[in-house]
Amino acid sequence: MLEGRGLTKVYRMGEVEVHALRGVDLALREGEFTVLVGASGSGKSTLLNILGGLDVPSGGQLLHRGRPLTHAGEAERTRFRRDHVGFVFQFYNLIPSLTARENVQLVTDIARDPMEAREALEMVGLGARMDHFPSQLSGGEQQRVAIARAVAKRPEILLCDEPTGALDVKTGIVVLEVLETVHATLGTTTCIITHNAPIASLADRVITLSDGRIEREVRNAERARARDLKW
């Protein structure tokens, strides 16, 4: 589905070079649930941003279904994000003056084959709260609106950067269960950055990054086998 080959990323701060990624090889397979873990500064968010077309690598290749994206211009990367990728971030990025339904409709109005905003909100358990404003929702409910917004355009790929980072443990578990439901229902290729240990048990693969490199990769054989049988 999505493959990075030898991805590097170098940031220049004056005369200093910061190597955020150092030759990362990573393939996200269709329908797979992957978790990225690692210490702060290990390169997780940089990698996720490159995979989602929000940033470009300094070196290496990025391919979507075999089509090169490495040297794509801004317009092509925008189309890639719009048509194929859903994003969920640590902070919800909802528009305060819009209801939950209207926040989701911001995406459905520009997507090629979206689901109804109501359907997306019902999928995340917020059917009864769709006409509430963000200020009337808890942190966990706001994050679920953000998830509904991301999945309403039926993305092939769902990328989540610390989706429970701003939530307490109990609320975080609810959000993780929602992400698992979305993944199981839509079969979306899902990649999540998290420090929340319980989510690792939901993953087909857990990949640990350290100093811009993949340090370790652990495959959940039982879950992966069940996914392969399903798809």
Keyphrases for this structure?
33% helix, globular, Rossmann fold, alpha/beta, 28% strand, four-stranded antiparallel sheet, six-stranded mixed sheet, 231 residues, 10 strands
Characterization of the model:
This protein is of the alpha/beta class and 231 residues long. It has a single domain, classed as P-loop containing nucleotide triphosphate hydrolases (Rossmann fold). It is 33% helix and 28% strand. It has helices spanning 44-51, 74-84, 100-108, 117-123, 139-151, 169-186, 221-230, and strands spanning 2-13, 16-28, 33-37, 59-64, 67-68, 85-88, 157-161, 189-193, 205-210, 213-219. Helix 3 packs across helix 4 (117-123), helix 3 runs parallel beside helix 5 (139-151) and helix 5 packs parallel to helix 6. It is globular, with a radius of gyration of 17 Å. The chain starts with a strand and ends with a helix. The mean pLDDT is 88.
- CATH superfamily name? P-loop containing nucleotide triphosphate hydrolases
* CATH topology descriptor: Rossmann fold
Write down how many β-strands occur, each being a DSSP E stretch of 2 or more residues.
10
Give the helix level as a range of percent. Answer: 25-40%
Shape: globular
Helix-strand makeup class: alpha/beta
Q: Specify the number of helices.
A: 7
Mean pLDDT: 88
Going across the biggest sheet, name each strand in turn: 6-7-8-3-9-10
Uncertain segments are: none
